[in-house]
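Newbie here. two chains, one complex. Structure please?
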Amino acid sequence: MRASQLETPALSRHYFRRVAWRGHFRRESVLSGFGLTLGFTVFYLSLIVLIPISATFLKAAEGGLASFWAAISAPRVIAAYRVTFGCALVAALINTVFGVLLAWVLVRYRFPGRRLCDALIDLPFALPTAVAGIALAAIYAPKGWVGQYAAEWGVKIAFTPMGITIALIFIGIPFVVRTVQPVLESMDFACEEAATTLGANRWQSFRLVVLPALIPAVLTGFALAFARGIGEYGSVIFVAGNMPMVSEIVPLLIITKLEQYDYAGATAIAVAMLGISFAMLLTINLLQAWTRRAESQR
Amino acid sequence: MSIRIENLSKHFVGFRALNNVNLEVATGGLVALLGPSGCGKTTLLRIVAGLDTQDAGSVLFDDEDMSDVHARDRQVGFVFQHYALFKHMNVFDNIAFGLTVMPRAKRPDKSAINQKVCQLLELVQLEGLAHRFPAQLSGGQRQRVALARALAVEPKVLLLDEPFGALDARVRKELRRWLRNLHDQLQVTSIFVTHDQEEALEVADTVVVMNGGRIEQVGTPEDVYERPATPFVCEFLGDANRLDLAVAPAASDRSTVESPTASAVYARPHELDLARETSTLGGIETRLSTRRRVGSVVRVTLERADGQGVIDAELTHERFVSERWAEGDRVWVRASNPRSFGQQLH
């Protein structure tokens, strides 16, 4: 008894010194393999993400600042930015509204064919984008199933930014549905019942009780759909018409430059895209962090 | 506001949750719906609140049929087992919710809401926590917020679904007493659901014991404990031993009302006489097999000599020591206050 009492302080002092030394990097934990897994993570990220991106930057810097600026600010390129980001934004916004609606219906109601609908949501994930592009072009072209009726009204869908937006809606919808769905599923029904017994009508209980809990997931879904829309190439080029200044997207412009062996110009535009995309995702992430903090910690 | 439940029935798929239930709750009453899980007590409460709909029968508030009245118009306060607080709102906004969603014409102005919420915070003893969020509160505090939120709209009926079910034993006991006091203060007609018999006996004016979608007995806590109407009530409220028919009736004149062969006899563990020798009054021969001290009492297990199972008895620690009981002793057991039921009831 006495012996152990004497020993304890010395033992613990030694122990604490050891922990303090290691504690700079990590907390003492029963989970082993920290060093190995961290090392692998850094290596893997470098290989897959950092090296290609830095290569892009290096290549873009080859021509010097003046030609870099000229490459990224040409009127045709500016127009392409506008088409890409504009269409992606509109598509993501539309997807956000209808994606939440779809998720809501799939989670809250039981109806025949629900499982089939649920499976169909994943189709844009699985379908090769070129297939989607050809299908959409066939439907929305002036002579297509839908396009011919639109043409009667004087509306041209395919080969315009509207066509691009439709393609991006198709591509982006699963991102919103699949991020919102699990959150809706795990939501406690009792909160809405509580709101009802307190006299809230359906709209009030949705707006005041359900929606605030959904917002982080909705933002994530929006960000994913938007990012996917910016990068989408395969399905868009078939339905876009690719007219310079009107319906030409940035990824296509990059391909065009590459085909002309203008590697510096292509990478310059790529870097600009990277910068803008990064800034937008950062904004959305900050917004998310903010709502999440508001949600949980406050 | 009084509540009357008439011939209420409810089926779920392949399962009869409520079977022709009739119940009356007087204005200002505090009623406990008590029963094992799956007995239909929560379903009954939810139908009264309008959160579920009955298949048949009706719920009347002050003789007015509520069947076609939506839950949001019934003016009931409902408290959920897991609080169901709005996580993204602070305590103040949670409590004010019922007032802020009122139609503009009826809605009190900001300062009136403010005042009302402060009053309620005081009532539930949570002054100073108005700007906390539910995640920052303990379970007991959360349930008090939920109660304040339900009371904010001045409900005519307060319904509580296992209000203390998710809390630890100590907090539960504390809140029980507090709820009892609160009810005495507010006098709002209240029904609460519980599977904890101690809670029901301690808090309620009237205990409704339910089993298998039916009401077994309605009565004061004393009634249901001392004069159980059915074997189920006897077994569910407190512990009970089922004794041998041939021996026990001799102990009390009450049991002789029915012929011994047609009745089941129950005795509570603390209502058993233990003796070292058989007396003229008879008894059951047993052997004291195990003993466990629980606080001020000692619980003993008595193995019957005729091999018909065991009897649980309870005696004060004082008595256990002074009578020098020990494991392995031969014990003659006699019920001092047995309860018998006709066989057809069981």
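Moderator note: Residues 63-297 of chain A form a domain with the MetI-like fold fold (CATH 1.10.3720.10). Chain A is about 80% helix and 0% strand. Thread marked as resolved.
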